[in-house]
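hiii, so i know i said id send this last week but things got crazy w the move. better late than never?? heres the sequnce for the chain we talked about at the cafe, plus the structure i predicted for it. fair warning i was half asleep when i ran it
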Amino acid sequence: MNLLITGAWSDAKAYFEQLSQMGHCVFFLQNEKDDPLPLAYDDVQGVVCNGLFLHHSIDAFTNLRYIQLTSAGLDRVPMDAVRARGIRVVNAGGVYSVPMAEFALAGVLSLYKQLRAFECSRTRQAWEKRRDLIELCEKTVLIVGCGSVGNECAKRFGAFGCTVKGVDLYPRADALYADIVGLDALDVALAEADITVLTLPLTEQTRHLMDRTRLATMKKGSLLVNIARGAIVDSSALLWALDEHLGGAVLDVFETEPLPESNPLWDKKNVILTPHNSFVGEKNAERLANLIIQNLRSES
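okay and structure toks below
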């Protein structure tokens, strides 16, 4: 098929010959936003992209039948149009799960072990002991969204002696979790958790899922980890919760990105804040290429 690949797949050019041998006619678009397409819209049959449809209407791709995303989320794709037209869409599920889970664990440990305070002491060459460190062992960890990322988080927190529970749209028995309940039981689960990790997709149902009422439902002094999408958490409510209710937060995603310099989150001492970077790992490129090639074999 006529396959449009964008710069979202950074290593794509190394695989052009292999894709051609599979029967695909490959076209490359470096910049999804600003560059003109190297072929007519109605000649495109398949795409490998990230945010292409944020800048080019999917309606223009009249013969499109296949979308491979380089991201795990589907929120940058007009899914109503995709479903209506029967377009096959596949994400990069599993590609970024390991580094994201490692990040979640590292962030929690950083807060529990007061690493920021120790770093401040080091810069002053001050030998200052801390007597308020917290153990991760035997804590209750709630994973909200028990997909690939959530499962990798469950493995790692479980290995540290935590009781891991899950909330998912599809409750089920899973050896990685003590139990997985439905979204209708979220409030009860939040009240029992020492750490809540958000790994669910952003949809209209999950937008501002964590509003002020729900944040107040969380266990007093507990931690919130968001490695999913920023808009799942109400930003203003989160500021209140960090001041009045939560013990801290590990935040890699935000409603507005980049996070504005004026945002009060920058100055919160009980927050680990990173620039949507938790997905980065040295094996991502290999995993992504293997996934894309495997999926495109079925489209040859």
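btw Residues 117 and 272 are 12 Å apart (CA to CA). thought thatd interest u
miss u guys!!
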